[in-house]
Amino acid sequence: MSFTLSHAIKVVLGLVFMSFLVLLLGCSSAMSKLDYSNIFNRKGWNHTDKVVEKLALKKGDVVVDLGAGDGYFSYVLAEEVGSAGKVYAVDISQSALDKISKNAKERNLDNIYTVLAEEADPNLPVNDINMIFMSNSYHHISDRITYFKKVSKHLAHDGRLAVLDTKEGTPFFIIPHGVHAQQIRQELAEAGYKYTVGYDFLPFNNFQLFTK
To answer: Are 79 and 53 in contact, with CB atoms under 8 Å apart?
Structure first.
């Protein structure tokens, strides 16, 4: 009996080890894109500086952080567009927006405005938006084609949409859900957007830019 139990334990441990190796190999491409000098810093593993560089924002731009969450990118974008610009942090959670407002005040970022959205409507208060930015929020929207047709009306004639979402092949225990790059392009094409460029430097996210 003890031999059988011991053998079973060894088999289970072997299977766990093999599963770990498979996951590790699957993550190898993503791991190579991590900034290990800042591995415990969100700015490092998010490649924040490089993302903002690719957005090519200008001082005075009007930007929407759609699905702002904890406001991480709202603060970064607000600094990038400067005091002459505006950032609208949009989310369906009032408590999240309250925290963003509090943190923005503490950081002396008076160009951040919070907007309470609905599930099917971002309730954008302005038109002529230069950029709508989304980080890991695209997949939370249900009827995306209808939603983004509505959103496009608020973009300036040369306005852009930036979407970061889960990269195909990302292990579920890192990011459990998302929409892959090709599907995003297909859906936004149906909504009337034109794909302009995509970037592959993020370890776990695809990063794509679109115009109206």
So the answer is: no
Residues of 178-188 as b/e, b for ≥16 C-beta within 10 angstroms? bbebeebbebb
Strand residue runs (E) in the chain: 62-66, 86-91, 112-116, 129-135, 155-166, 194-199, 205-211
How far apart are alpha carbons 43 and 63 in whole angstroms? 20
Q: How many CA atoms lie within 13 A of 42 on its CB side?
A: 5
Tell me how far apart the alpha carbons of residues 207 and 181 are, in angstroms, rounded to a whole number: 8
- Could you list the pLDDT tens digit for every one of the 212 residues in the chain? 444 555 445 444 444 444 443 444 444 444 444 443 344 445 555 689 999 999 999 999 999 999 999 999 999 999 999 999 999 999 999 999 999 999 999 999 999 999 999 999 999 989 999 999 999 899 889 899 999 999 999 999 999 999 998 776 554 444 546 688 999 999 999 999 999 999 988 887 899 999 98
